[in-house]
Amino acid sequence: MSKILLINGPNLNLLGTREPEIYGDTSLNEVEEKLKASAEDAGHEFNCFQSNAEHEIINTIQQAKQDNIDVIIINPGPFTHTSIALRDTFLSTKIPFIEIHISNIFEREEFRKNSFLSDISIGCIIGCGVGGYGLAMRRAKNFLRDK
Question: 99-129 burial string, b = 16+ CB within 10 Å, else e?
Answer without folding.
Answer: bbbbbebeeeeeebeebbbeeebebbbbebe
